[in-house]
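Notes for week 9. Today we move from apo structures to complexes. The key idea is that a small molecule is not decoration. When we ask for a structure prediction with zinc ion present, the ligand SMILES becomes part of the input, just like the chain. The input block below holds both the sequence and the ligand string. Read it once before you look at the output, and try to guess where the molecule might sit.
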Amino acid sequence: MDHVKNIEDLIEQKSDLFVSMSEKIWEFAETSFQEKQSAKYIAENLVKQGFTVEEEVAGIKTAFVASFGSGKPVVAFLGEYDALAGLSQEKGVSEYQPVEKGGNGHGCGHNLLGTGSFASAVAVKDYMEEHGLSGTVRYYGCPAEESGDAKAYMVKAGLFVDVDFAICWHPAPVNSVLRMDVLATQQVYFRFKGRSAHAAASPYLGRSALDAVELMNIGVNYLREHIVPEARVHYAVTNTGGHSPNVVQSDAEVLYLIRGRTVPQAKEMYERVCKIAEGAALMTETELEIVFDSGSSDLVHNHVLDDVVQSSMTRMAPPTYTDQEREFAKAIRETLSEAERDSYWAKGLKGHSLTDFVVDREEIDEMTGSTDVADVSWVTPTTQCLTTCFANGTSLHSWQAVSQVGMSIGQKGMLYAGKVMAATAIEVMQNEELLAQAKRELEERTAEIGYISPIPEGAKPGLEK
Ligand SMILES: [Zn+2]
């Protein structure tokens, strides 16, 4: 039997398990580094499927690696399972209706992402057993994609040194190979410490940490004119020093996310932002503490592997939808602004509420964002696909996304992604020349500068701070 058909059958046989797992993780909705239940639940299910699990890898409580088989080749499936704060929303509902006001929600569909990769790992394992295929299949439990870049820390810990190739995916409004212009990042806390005082009686005795944050932000906003156009600088004030205007605020904190084309460019921008922070501290006579949080790299595409993904996608039928699902997608689109409704990921999607066909890589619009999958892509050939998990025009990180990734539309996309990734893995595992080509492409693309970790020596991931 053709391996593509075989993989489709293997995923279908366990589809009830995969769907229920994605629903469970949707309900857990745990944010970066807090994914205790989600990580434990996926790891337990991997054990039930015959994998051995190493927990708490790279010094991160919610990161793990599950393995089946032995020897070469080693294929890695990357799984994410973190949710976003403030995005609580009922599933399968086409109006804003939070489950819990201010609660978390899976606005990026990582409940599907983690489970889709799980489905692939299990299908590859089942196929290996059925056909006596040798090699190793691994599932990398990768927490904190939304904030924390756990994969960059996992790469730094050497967890990918023996991996031959890696595969990941992301929920989207389209079925395609991922074509994305990924920017490198540096995320850093700037903490100012001053002296509190009565704001009316003795303001001259106080030194305001909040003033320092404000002056720093003004300085950075002036910097914007003098940075390369592709760079991005964002900030959030994470501690304003309290709610009392009649107190001179002694503590304040601002979190900066700095993006550049490459890691050296992002690091250079980071140094410039640090100088502005030092200037703000000098102006306000406050003390400054700079705490590095996380960072990620730009993405190294691998067209050899991308081509295998593309052919796996076209060799199996993408999901079709019921009238009810199509009506639901239309109802979701009614809640979007006109600009959102008209924003398609590819020209060919115009006029479609739900994408039920495969789009060629070249037809997908170039987008800008960041992902820590990029760090893996520097150390092993890596490919990613997108599958339709929500209506066209749906933004990631929106209540509309949370609603759809908890229901059949998202689940169909997840099963399709699971099949595509598993079929890709089986094809590459059985074709030494193809794998050698993918490795050569990585060597060529990284020959000039090589991998520079975005994580400085001594930096600790997430909650350890
Ligand atoms: Zn995401």
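The chain is about 40% helix and 20% strand.
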